[in-house]
Write a structure and sequence with these properties.
five-stranded mixed barrel; globular; 2 domains; mainly beta; 149 residues; 54% strand
Length: 149
């Protein structure tokens, strides 16, 4: 795989969960418990420019049985330090419980100096006509953060 000549860098940074409010667009990686709502493994507050990206509820590869819900936050209820978010997307909604242990992150602009050996990265690549893989963007955990997505 190679990075495109004009690739961009996004820094993945930890944020306070209070930044997620009704109307925010989020991606929540979660596990379904035997009974009750999804339990978040990580929540990503997506920038407004990414609203609608990957919208829906579908299987994810973070852990066996994990799911991804990309949706608009319709409601938030906080009990102690646990938040229960109702996430609404085009064809439905999911309730996701966010325990205090779940990382809450967002993207910030990064720069190419962050691309170095040992950096924790997430790369989405596309297959080129010649069969090679190429990526136009790379997301890197800032300050040692290991992005789970």
């Amino acid at each position: 795989m190679k990075l495109a000549d004009d690739y961009t860098v996004n820094a993945v940074v930890k944020i306070d969960i209070a930044r997620i409010v009704p109307g925010s667009f989020v991606g929540a990686a979660s596990l379904p418990p035997p009974d009750g709502p999804q339990s978040a493994l990580e929540v990503l507050l997506l920038p407004e420019s990414r609203r609608g990206s990957g919208e829906g509820h579908y299987p994810w590869d973070l852990q066996p049985g994990s799911m991804m819900t990309n949706a608009t936050v319709a409601d938030i209820v906080t009990v102690d330090q646990t938040r229960k978010m109702t996430l609404r997307y085009k064809d439905g909604e999911q309730v996701v419980v966010v325990p205090p242990s779940a990382p809450v992150v967002t993207f910030e602009p990064g720069d190419r100096t962050m691309v170095k050996p040992g950096a924790h990265v997430i790369i989405g690549a596309s297959r080129q006509p010649d069969g090679t893989l190429s990526a136009s963007a790379i997301s890197i955990g800032k300050d040692g953060l290991v992005p789970l997505m």
